[in-house]
Design brief:
single chain, 403 residues, alpha/beta, Arc Repressor Mutant, subunit A, Nucleotidyltransferase, domain 5, 3 domains, globular, binds zinc ion
């Protein structure tokens, strides 16, 4: 929970959500004089909480000293929990990678296996970054299963049947002896994509669509990640776009994910191959069938692959167009493995759908682009999940006892 009793704290959190804002923005936002802004900002800079840079913002060319959270006020530890192992990273507050460590495990064996791997991966990442564990006060964790984020419980996990109602947050807090923020891996990836892309910061209302085995989203409102009543906001994957469509793993029919998730795309390709439809993908061993091989075959004109990709792009385009119509964002960024494998087709399809299905004002005011490839982006997002708690800790350390 963000504490903001003092003007300095209000300014700190404003800059937290809007890196590269300038002093004039603060005056307008809080209705305060330039002298008051100056006093408060100087105090925050002197305390080492904010930094001022003269970096130019490319899209506007403005050059006044812009404000950012000092990336060094805390080091962040993130755990990216996957079915076959845990990747841990250490970053600064800006998401710059300082160290990484991985530990394999078979999550199907249960939560204890994941806890053991988490401790091992975290230890390796801290050692790699030459950071003492005592410098970490809170951990960010991304999880692949279906989560009750508010209560920190993994309700279920496809491909790991033993995971039913596992209180994973409490288990990690107990194992590490510190607070844990847990969230969906795709939302973590969206967070990293935003925080590490300065070119996006001029677009305060933005959607980051994450196309992986499922479809996820991070929705930023005025620079801040939208979370919703039970903290699960942005679950685009299970919005129904065709009630007669294929079965989804959630039990409904025709969810976006049932068309555009990589699991669904590969399932469709396998189904077509099993029914005897001619395809160049017959030459690919089943173990090597991936979104990348399917997208490559589609580009070579293979009918089975093309149909699966077209169906995915059409479903995703429809879903994004609905979101653009309702939310009126200024930026949509398409991220994830499908965006990497079939980026050109995705971008064209989503732009086409938005043009065709949205009212003109909404369609005209949104920029749609692909994410640039970034290493370890999902794990970096997990670390950034801890940024708010660590920022709170740094603020409290500076301001407690000063009331
Ligand atoms: Zn579904």
């Amino acid at each position: 929970m963000r504490r903001a009793h003092r003007l300095e704290e209000l300014i700190f959190w404003y800059v937290f959500d809007r890196p590269f804002c300038v002093r004039n923005d603060l005056g307008r936002q809080f209705g305060i004089s330039p002298a008051t802004v100056s006093r408060a900002v100087s105090a925050l800079v002197n305390d080492g909480l904010l930094i001022e840079t003269s970096a130019e913002v490319a899209s506007t060319g403005r050059k006044p000293q812009s404000l950012r959270i000092n990336p060094e006020i805390a080091v962040l530890l993130g755990l990216d929990i996957q079915l076959d192992g845990v990747l841990a990273v250490v970053t600064d507050m800006a998401g710059t990678l300082l160290g990484r460590g991985a530990a394999p495990c078979d999550a199907q064996e249960g939560a204890e296996a994941v806890l053991t791997a988490s401790l091992a991966a975290a230890g390796a990442a801290l050692e790699d970054a030459e950071i003492d564990r005592s410098e970490i006060g809170h951990i960010g964790v991304g999880h692949s299963g279906d989560l009750d984020i508010k209560n920190g419980v993994c309700v279920s996990w496809a491909n790991a049947a033993s995971w039913r109602s596992v209180p994973i947050r409490a288990m990690l807090e107990s194992a590490f002896g510190m607070g844990v923020t847990i969230d969906d891996r795709s939302r973590a990836l969206a967070l990293a994509e935003r925080r590490t892309s300065p070119e996006d910061w001029d677009y305060p209302d933005a959607l980051y669509i994450v196309c992986a085995s499922g479809i996820g989203m991070g929705f930023f409102v005025d620079g801040r990640l939208y979370r919703g009543a039970s903290l699960g906001g942005g679950e685009i994957g299970h919005t129904v776009i065709d009630s007669n469509g294929p079965m989804c793993r959630c039990g409904n029919r025709g969810c976006v994910e049932a068309f555009a998730g990589s699991v669904a795309i590969l399932q469709q390709v396998r189904g077509a191959l099993a029914s005897g439809t001619p395809s160049s993908l017959r030459a690919v061993p089943d173990s090597e069938l991936s979104i990348r091989t399917v997208a490559a075959a589609a580009r070579q004109g293979d009918a089975v692959a093309s149909l699966a990709i077209e169906r995915a792009v059409h479903a995703l385009g429809t879903a994004v167009a609905n979101l653009v119509q309702v939310l009126n964002p200024s930026l949509v960024v398409v991220c994830g493995q499908l965006a990497r494998a079939a980026g050109a087709e995705m971008l064209a399809g989503v732009r086409r759908a938005v043009r065709a299905q949205c009212v003109e004002t909404a369609a005209r005011s949104v920029e749609i682009r692909l994410a640039r490839p970034k290493k370890d982006v999902s794990a970096i997002g997990c670390a950034l999940l801890a940024a708010e708690a660590e920022a709170e800790r740094a603020l409290n350390a500076r301001f407690s006892g000063r009331e």
